[in-house]
Amino acid sequence: MRFQRRTQIQALSSSTDHRRVRSDNTKNAIMRAAERLIADRGIENVSIRDIVSAAGQKNESALQYHFKNLTGLIEEIKLARSDQTHLKRAELIQALHQTTTQPSVADACKLMVQPAFELACEDKDFHCYVKAFGHELVLTNSSPSAKATAQGGGGASGKQTAAMLKDALPHLDAEIYQQRLDAAVLLSSASMYHQARQKNAFIGDQAQLFLHSLVDALVGVFTAPVSPETQVLTDKAKSNS
Fold first, then answer.
1. Cβ contact 74:34 at 8 Å
2. Packing angle between helix 2-41 and helix 70-97, nearest 10 degrees?
3. CA-CA distance, 41 to 174, in Å (whole number)?
4. SS3 of residue 171 by DSSP
């Protein structure tokens, strides 16, 4: 009797595991199909039916079951990719701390872009994600860095990177630092998006040249001298706020 009950429990557990794996596979197929289609056509030209069909599903209920609607699907994609980027950045931060106790501006700037860059080099699906959504921060009408943080672009590793930047830039006051951070986020987003749309994106020496040139440009954004005009206008804006 006990053997029979144990067998029934094992069978039930195996069935549950099988359903969970099948559900996860379906969810992943829908997310990857959406990334590929949006990368190729733009989100305004992709329907739920298109995504479901490209994911090999029979009807739209599969997407609705897992994500409720297209908005929910897009949010889930961004959250998953954000988590993936955070993990990669955390690995890079750990490796950096093994080589120095005082990260430079260049080290921090590299941490802004290297995680997503490496993931795009390693994974064609992540490349599609950058190609599909990499331009969105450029189009925002609010602070790009604040929007990135609100969308999950901060996280623990992002906060660590921001702390490194601030420590390496003690001469910049808070307002000018924020201005330059927004400019750096815009530059990073636009550059990664442009790279993702190139024929041989994220491949070979061309890709490495892109990464290091982008880091150089970001360093320039943060370390350029503050002009008298910028300082006067920044002070004026502070006094009027």
1. yes
2. 90
3. 40
4. coil
Domain locations in the chain as residue ranges: 1-68, 80-240
In whole angstroms, what is the distance from residue 155 CA to residue 14 CA?
A: 36
Separation between Cα atoms, residue 73 and residue 76, nearest integer Å: 5
Nearest to 191 by CA among 114, 125, 78: 114
Give the per-residue pLDDT at 152.
57
Separation of alpha carbons 31 and 51, rounded Å? 8
Q: Cβ-count burial of 150 within 10 angstroms (0-12 exposed, 13-18 middle, 19+ buried)?
A: exposed
Q: Answer yes or no: are the C-beta atoms of 111 and 161 closer than 8 Å.
A: yes
Cα separations (Å) of 30 from 52, 77, 78? Answer: 6, 10, 14
C-alpha dihedral, 215 to 216 to 222 to 226, nearest 10° = -160
> What is residue 137's DSSP assignment?
G
Global pTM? 0.88
Helices (H) and strands (E) in the chain, counts: 11, 0
Q: Model confidence over 65-99: pLDDT tens digits? A: 999 999 999 999 999 999 999 999 999 999 999 99
CATH of domain 1-68: 1.10.10.60
Q: Which of 1-5, 80-84, 153-157, 209-213 has the lowest mean pLDDT?
A: 1-5
* Spatial separation of the C-alpha atoms in residues 213 and 230, rounded to whole Å: 26
Distance CA 191, CA 205 (A): 17
